[in-house]
Design brief:
This protein has five helices and no strands. The protein is mainly alpha-helical and 129 residues long.
Length: 129
């Protein structure tokens, strides 16, 4: 179990470093100015995705809770999205207008981390079948 937890943390940390660096490089290369910090967006998603995967892996060891893991994941996913809106309220709702590049830049990390998170959750859910 410790190896799996280390793997989750390592992969999300690497994804944070590579993704935010590539995103910033591409933004500078194409001369885009963002009204929010790309690093903070990537860090938020990396931290909470790793936290969700680690918690689900730990909870999967309890026989009584294992059948409920899917519902636990859905509730933590909703909590993650609510916290995203809370933490990034200003860029999302206060800024008068987002350019298309800013909208795409905000949602790329969401989908990347959600995809990797879903793969890990599927592996956790399929481990006892």
């Amino acid at each position: 179990m410790n190896k799996e937890i280390f793997k989750y943390v390592l992969i999300f940390a690497l994804l944070f470093l590579i993704g935010s660096s590539a995103h910033q490089f591409l933004g500078q290369f194409l001369d885009f100015k963002f009204s929010f910090s790309i690093d903070k967006v990537y860090f938020f998603h990396a931290f909470f995705s790793a936290l969700i995967c680690v918690n689900l892996r730990v909870v999967s060891n309890f026989e009584r809770l294992f059948p409920q893991l899917g519902f636990i994941y859905l509730s933590t996913l909703v909590l993650k999205l609510v916290l995203f809106v809370v933490f990034f309220y200003d860029p999302l709702f206060v800024v008068d207008s987002f350019s298309i590049a800013e909208k795409v830049a905000l949602f790329i990390p969401l989908f990347v981390f959600l995809l990797i998170e879903a793969v890990f959750v599927l592996k956790i859910l399929n481990q006892k079948e």
